[in-house]
Structures are given as structure tokens and as C-alpha cells.
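Case study 2.
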Amino acid sequence: MSGVNKVIVVGRLGSDPEVKTVTSGQTVCRLSVATSENWTDRDGQKQEKTEWHRVVVWGRMAEVCGKHLSKGRQVYLEGRLQTRSWEDQQGQKKYTTEIVANTVQFLGGSNDRSSQSNDMSGGGASQDFGPEPSFDSSEEIPF
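Prediction:
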């Protein structure tokens, strides 16, 4: 029996999408998506933990994401986990694990953070999720 590699994430963008065209001519979009978990600890104090997800979208959907998404916008993503490696400038091997999305649905309107429509108008209010991991622009996505 083969395995299952499926990821579903509903979260908010921590920054505007990064869109590039790779040498093959295909469009790729990188997203940084935050998901948060809230709970009350034993002392009655409210706690929150934010998890950051690196997301890669390819092709026409990458173009649409770059055009209509912005920091703070809520998205629903489906895809698969992928780990890739590269050598940095010092020759050390680096690894990253990311979600390669094959479905992206835009949630909420440009000003309504609680709505769950597929409004493609863009926009979205900004929200602080804590420190966001940065994408190293020297990292190239394999073609």
C-alpha cells in the first residue's frame, strides 16, 4: 500500500506573496501562512501559539495568488509536504520543508475577516502573528 501525503491549512498570510517566473517560464508564488492555536492554561491565563508554514504554488494559480492575495488575507490550502535541499554559499547542505499547494481558496472579503466567501477582490487587513520566518531569496525552487 502506498502512503498518503496530504496537508490542509486554513490560515492568514504573514506577508504579501512573492511571485517569480523561473527559467522554464513557469510562474511560482511563495506564501508564508500562519495558523494559531489558543487555549487557557492551568492558571487561567490565555495562551496562543502560532505556527508558520512555507507554501509554494505553481502555474496559473500562482499568478492568481500574486494578483489577489495580500498580507493578512485568510486562505484555505490543500497540497502535499515536500522537503528539498540545496547548498548555501559556504557549501553547507540546507533543507526546507514546504507545502506544495494544488488548491487555494481565498476566504473572507477584502475588509471582512469573518466571512468565508471566495471573494477574489484582494485586500485584507493586516494582523501581527509574531515573528515571521523570512524566505531566503538565494533559495531556488528546483525546476
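Residues 1-35+48-143 form a domain with the OB fold (Dihydrolipoamide Acetyltransferase, E2P) fold (CATH 2.40.50.140).
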